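Listing S7. Sequence submitted for prediction.
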Amino acid sequence: MSKNAEIATIFEQMAAMLSILDENPFKIRAYKKAAVNILELSEAIEDRVSTGDVTDIPGVGKDLASKVSEYVQTGEIEEFDKLQEKVPLEMTELLGILGLGPKTLALLYRELHVRGLEDLEKVLDSKEVLEFKGLGQKKVDEIKRGIPLLKEKRDRTHLGKALPLAEKIKKEVEKIKGTEGTIIAGSIRRMRETIKDIDILTISDNTEITVKEFTELPFVKEILAAGETKGSVITNDGIQVDLRVVGPKSYGGALQYFSGSMAHNVKLRTIASKSGLRINEYGIFKGEEKVAGETEKEMYATLGLPFIPPELREDRGEIEAAMEGKLPDLIELQDIKGDLHMHTTWSDGRASIEEMALSAMDLGYEYIAITDHSPSSTIANGLSVERLKKKKEELTAVNKKIKGINILMGSEVDIKTDGSLDYSDEVLQELDVVIASVHSGFKMDSETITNRILRALENPFVHALGHPTGRLINQREPYDVDIDKLIETALKYNKALEVNSSYLRLDLKDLHVKKAVDAGVKIIISTDAHRPEQLLQMRYGVGTARRGWVQKRDVLNALNFDELNEWLKSKK
């Protein structure tokens, strides 16, 4: 197991400590950027250290490279230890609370001796906190509202962090002699946006030895349990992993049982009971006789049901749809023909147009849209009209140079506070793809921000609404937009809604996605990638879409290029 996640976590914590100490903002950003890029590396950071290629990682200069090497070689970073003498480590998580910035936290630390969440909650309930400048009742209430989000974040891990870790653990389990059919189960298999723990299932005839070897694998920090058929450990990343070991005749029963959800499984048990059957983790039984258990398909068939895809197993009508033969034919990752939302070095991306195009070709895409930011996004180096023209010149040249992929000229255009767009209609009509997005003014009341977005959707040159609710999972609540009105307007003006595949966003979320496609609204599933590796996050968006009952026919970027181009041009 690589140390990528460990080093990324430490760099994130160091960035938080430095921000509390009011250190150089460029240094803080460097640690944050390095953390993200190291976490998303496709290879082990140890391999980079051994070959001396650490500084090739975007955002990792000589200083951070030396710290990476220090950790790989010693398991420690001296500067990290020194920072903990100045700022308690548990304080760093408090910066994840909405409304609690580093300056306010530094004040609470210095003047009211806040050292962690428990201290913070006590202080916020005291009258003393209101005596400090900038800490009025409104601010205190805002911080209080952010605390439940932090507690949820403590208990759950983003899918985009949990799934890659689970896949690495799965490979380690597959190396254990005598195992077969190793699979990731649980909420990860259902592609939930956050997970509490990782469930792995494998087949073995020697269950006890398999469990023992599992608990001795390199990623294990602490052993919670090591029984005959189950091992439970805490990883170096602080995530619980449960391994279940079964025989081949119980594999389907165990996989169905441990994939959940609980509500789905309870309903299946009710159906079984009415037929004189009972279900447990070993299979389906009639009296003492096992009548199903080798495969999941057999489990469902015994109950008179077709196989129900894991992403649907949330007791949201999937069992009733299965009974009626109305399960959707869900979108697959291989159905995606292109990515319509990404950024390059023209704005805040980390790769050129050509580099993004070549990476998309490697994924087998027919087309991409380069959608760099518009001028109002100054922090993201948004493009003036003049720079937009120069970008188009480069994009045209790259289109001529590279054969086998179509590169569309686009922009992610800011929706201003009054609902107007960041470029004039004259500029917008020259673009192939226009993604309209909100990047400021998140705290508007529901009516104001809803009307703001609806006005943007009425613009004839807009194709899609990007990350429609603005949420950042476990970090920022969605803005208070009226989803029903948004969907109604998107349908009226034939606009697409985005499922943003960034694992921090997954926006629209699954329930809203289902509501949109049920109404007849088209969606795009896109990555919002800022560098080539992030194009691979498409699978998280597809997983979210599948949870929203999305079919291929609902997705614009499942069209071939000619079909998509026809739809795009119909908007003008």
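Caption to Listing S7: primary sequence and predicted structure tokens for the chain studied. The first helix runs from residue 4 to 20. The two ends are 51 Å apart (CA to CA).
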